[in-house]
Design a protein that fits this description.
The complex is a heterodimer of chains A (about 220) and B (about 240). Chain A is α+β, with helices and mostly antiparallel strands and about 220 residues long. Chain A has helices spanning about 1-30, 60-80, 85-90, 100, 105, 110-120, 120-130, 190-195; strands at about 40, 55, 135-145, 150-160, 170-180, 210-215. In chain A, the strands form two sheets. A four-stranded antiparallel sheet of chain A has the order 3-4-5-6, covered by helices on one side. In chain A, strands 1-2 form a two-stranded antiparallel sheet. In chain A, helix 3 packs antiparallel against helix 7. By secondary structure, chain B is of the alpha+beta class. Helices cover about 35% and strands about 20% of the residues of chain B. Chain B has four helices and six strands. At the A-B interface, helix 1, strand 1, helix 2 and strand 3 of A face helix 1, strand 1, strand 2, helix 4 and strand 3 of B.
Chain lengths: ~220, ~240
């Protein structure tokens, strides 16, 4: 009888301890939980570009959102600015924190990133050293019969800095993208919130993934 | 009674069970209260949650998406940030300005003074920080000034000679290239957009400039100088 009482008391204490652990954990989670459904978009960072009301990600049509993310991806693939740190960090994706450096890692499969690193990144580094500037315009996105997306883009390249008369060279190209089949929405996980606070590209907060890329 | 050999021999045989059951009753009650208050705290914490929207800027020409605001607003801007911002603003304005009827002002702005390291140089004179003499030369390093002389100055001299050849800066928009945290007391990378009235048109330029720090050589601008300057015509 004495032993059974002791076992019963021990069991109660164990349950109480586990319960407290669970509740402490729950309180910790609740305290840290942040809701990122409210994900707003604005056209620009400076006040004069901020004349319209921000748009909630939930209220942007899926097609538009997909178009924005593809534009973001194609931009990241080609853009060049005359900042050496930018080119070095982007071209060297081997680091553990590579996602924070380049949204390419977060938005696409490893084979896409590897191919980019081998084919496009060296050009970007060279152009950066030569102080060139390259902006990207995505002109048209259409869906092919195979389910691939055809992206027509235009690269505007300024080859000589500070030449106040120089106009950019324009080059057109086409890219074929295969997307992972998944609903396009904000990834609400705690990890995403943390990543965004640490400076990851905001595009990485979406469930959007590119499986393969081919270029003309 | 076998005392003192058997300690467990109770004075009152049922006493132990009564004590255990009292203890259990009290413990269960305390546990119940603790669990109830924890539930209360959970509800309180959940209810008191703030809305923390992510505000993202998507530029029209593509490029980087920027997180403008979250739940950690910038509460104070350090003095060195303001200094660099004002200094760069002034430099960009000087770089893109061509006076129409005041050739002397243009020449002063574009002039190359005696080397910065010599004590007679205008660049060493703190008092002349608002002077337009050698405004560009005294605010950048030799590499940037050389580029200005070779690439920009020939074009500006031609424009100056034309009728209605004035260039007036209408607006300058400056921001750190990546994020506020990359601007330190030692300088940092900035990006800018400038609208310049060139004759009857408005021309927009976009560029990147690196501000560096050398107190000895650039006393006129409190140590700050431009070590890289790259601007591109947008239209």
């Amino acid at each position: 009888m004495k032993k059974s009482v002791l076992i019963f008391v021990a069991a109660i204490l164990l349950v109480a301890m586990l319960g407290s652990l669970f509740f402490a954990g729950a309180i910790y989670d609740a305290e840290n939980k942040a809701d990122i459904d409210t994900f707003f978009f604005e056209p620009g960072i400076s006040p004069d570009q901020r004349i319209e009301m921000p748009v909630d990600a939930e209220n942007i049509p899926v097609n538009r959102l997909r178009q924005m993310l593809i534009s973001r991806f194609v931009n990241e693939y080609f853009y060049v600015i005359p900042v050496v740190e930018n080119a070095t960090a982007r071209s060297n994706l081997a680091g553990a924190d590579s996602k924070s450096v380049s949204p390419l890692v977060g938005l696409s499969a490893p084979n896409v990133t590897k191919k980019w690193q081998q084919t496009v990144a060296p050009d970007i580094v060279k152009m950066t050293e030569d102080k060139m500037l390259r902006f990207v315009d995505v002109r048209k996105i259409s869906e092919a019969e195979s389910g691939h997306l055809t992206v027509e883009y235009e690269l505007r390249t300024w080859t000589r800095p500070n030449d106040v008369l120089a106009k950019p060279e324009i080059e057109k190209g086409t890219m074929y993208i295969e997307l992972k089949d998944q609903p396009l929405k904000v990834d609400n996980s705690q990890e995403t919130v943390q990543n965004l606070q640490e400076g990851y590209d905001p595009a990485s907060a979406f469930k959007f993934f590119i499986l393969s890329v081919e270029r003309d | 009674m076998e005392y003192p050999d058997d300690f467990n021999t109770p004075a009152f045989p049922a006493g132990k069970y009564v004590a255990v059951s009292r203890f259990m009753a009290t413990a269960v009650m305390i546990l119940f209260l603790v669990i109830m208050s924890l539930c209360g705290i959970i509800i309180w914490v959940k209810k008191s949650q703030n809305v923390t929207p992510f505000l993202v800027s998507v530029p029209n020409y593509g490029g980087r998406w920027t997180l403008i605001m979250h739940n950690k607003p910038v509460t104070e801007i350090p003095a060195y940030f303001m200094l660099q911002e004002s200094f760069l603003h002034k430099f960009v304005k000087n770089w893109f300005t061509i006076h129409e009827d005041d050739i002397a002002a243009n020449q002063a702005n574009w002039a190359e003074c005696s080397p910065r390291t010599s004590l007679e140089s205008e660049c060493m004179d703190r008092e002349s920080s608002n002077s337009s003499t050698c405004a560009i030369y005294c605010a950048c390093n030799d590499k940037v000034f050389e580029n200005f002389k070779q690439v920009v100055l020939p074009i500006f001299s031609e424009i100056e000679a034309q009728e209605s050849g004035a260039w007036t800066v209408q607006s300058i928009d400056l921001k750190p290239w990546n994020s506020f945290k990359f601007i330190t007391k030692q300088g940092g990378m900035w990006q800018f957009s400038v609208s310049v009235k060139t004759g009857s048109k408005v021309t927009r330029f976009h560029g990147y400039a690196r501000v560096s720090y050398n107190e000895q050589e650039y006393p006129r601008s409190m140590g700050y100088y431009i070590s890289e300057f790259n601007a591109y015509r947008m239209n």
